[in-house]
């Protein structure tokens, strides 16, 4: 809403919203009272003006003076009646709002220094020559596979505080570009170095890179013992024969209890036409599907940047699983004081209007 009240109406919940229906009793009671007076005249207040009253002549003169003054006072204070009616309705509505019990959920933030890493995330990324292919487009601008991957990886890492990350590259060879660390800024600074040719031209080291990732997860003395690690392989598929067979990698992962999640890169061939001297290599999905299916992971094929962002968004949800159990404190913050405070102000205004009617008439 505003900086003074930084909540939207969607954030507010109610303990007993049905209480607000009680405000309908006001017109119902008024209607019943009117109908009852019409059906039973004896319920209506007797009009004293219709009754014959006899006074002494001097008393009658005094009463006439008082009546004239009272009539003038009523004319001066005629504006008070609608004001008081509005204040009464407002007071009733605010009291009912308070009784409905408005509240919102608030998470108690934890500082990075006090919060242990939640989960270890290892990213195994292909950097073979095929990633220079410009078969993606965003905002009508051609993008290579590696350029899209750099952007989305940066967003992925930035969205997961309190996690540890490592980055392993592979092509002809496999090596660790960034060992496991909780320093997200350093990892994000290294992402521009994620370039094709950095580890060779082909993807023969695919199996070795995954085996290296699994081994590092087990040998890391600072690994999380509370949550399972997350292993994500990003590739355009296996174009050459892996020196370490994928069957051996699957056996190693299953023996270690680690699921391999795979993301397949590969846009549209028509976008790449004429932009590279390389022979176009489409996304090969069979190897990536097998790795994910046989280890309990998930495979996603992405053919445009939006799909890649969606795939990593789903991984964010998986990486945040059980985050609340790590000590994030969610509390109900009551908002009852707001309608009660306003009701107090309205009540004081109603009292003041009553005093004005009594002393100014």
TrEMBL record:
Membrane-spanning segments: 12-32, 338-360
Ranges where the VWFA domain occurs: 120-315
InterPro entries on file: UPF0353/GerABKA_families (IPR050768), VWF_A (IPR002035), vWFA_dom_sf (IPR036465)
Claim: Cell membrane is one of the keywords in the record: yes
Keyword terms of this UniProt record: Cell membrane, Membrane, Transmembrane, Transmembrane helix
PANTHER family reported for this sequence: LEUCINE ZIPPER PROTEIN 4, SPORE GERMINATION PROTEIN
Name the record gives this protein: von Willebrand factor type A
Source species: Thiomicrospira cyclica (strain DSM 14477 / JCM 11371 / ALM1)
Organism ancestry: Bacteria, Pseudomonadati, Pseudomonadota, Gammaproteobacteria, Thiotrichales
């Amino acid at each position: 809403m505003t900086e003074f009240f930084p909540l939207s109406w969607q954030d507010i919940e109610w303990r007993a919203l049905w209480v607000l229906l009680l405000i309908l009793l006001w017109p119902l009671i008024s209607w019943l009272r009117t109908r009852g007076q019409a059906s039973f005249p004896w319920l209506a207040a007797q009009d004293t003006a219709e009754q014959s009253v006899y006074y002494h002549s001097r008393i009658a003169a005094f009463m006439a003076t008082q009546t004239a003054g009272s009539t003038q006072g009523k004319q001066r204070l005629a504006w008070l009646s609608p004001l008081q009616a509005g204040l009464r309705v407002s007071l009733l509505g605010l009291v009912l709002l308070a009784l409905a019990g408005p509240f919102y959920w608030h998470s108690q933030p934890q500082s990075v220094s006090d919060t242990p890493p939640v989960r270890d995330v290892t990213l195994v990324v292909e950097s073979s020559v095929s990633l220079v292919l410009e078969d993606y487009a965003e905002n009508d601008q051609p993008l290579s596979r590696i350029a899209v991957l750099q952007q989305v990886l940066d967003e992925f890492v930035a969205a997961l505080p309190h996690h540890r990350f490592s980055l392993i590259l592979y092509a002809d060879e496999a090596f660790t570009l960034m060992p496991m660390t909780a320093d997200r800024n350093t990892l994000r600074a290294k992402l521009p170095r994620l370039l094709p040719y950095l580890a060779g031209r082909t993807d023969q080291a695919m199996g070795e890179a995954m085996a290296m990732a699994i081994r590092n997860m087990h040998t890391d003395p600072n690994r999380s013992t509370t949550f399972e690690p997350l292993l994500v392989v990003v590739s355009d598929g296996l174009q050459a024969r892996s020196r370490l067979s994928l069957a051996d990698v699957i056996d190693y992962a299953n023996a270690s209890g680690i699921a391999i999640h795979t993301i397949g890169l590969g846009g549209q061939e028509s976008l790449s036409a004429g932009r590279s001297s390389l022979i176009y290599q489409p996304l090969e999905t069979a190897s990536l599907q097998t790795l994910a299916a046989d280890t309990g992971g998930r495979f996603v094929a992405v053919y445009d940047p939006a799909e890649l962002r969606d795939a990593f968004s789903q991984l964010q949800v998986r990486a945040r699983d059980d985050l609340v159990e790590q000590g994030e404190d969610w509390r109900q913050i009551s908002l009852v004081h707001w309608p009660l405070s306003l009701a107090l102000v309205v009540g004081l205004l109603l009292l003041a209007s009553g005093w004005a009617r009594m002393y100014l008439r």
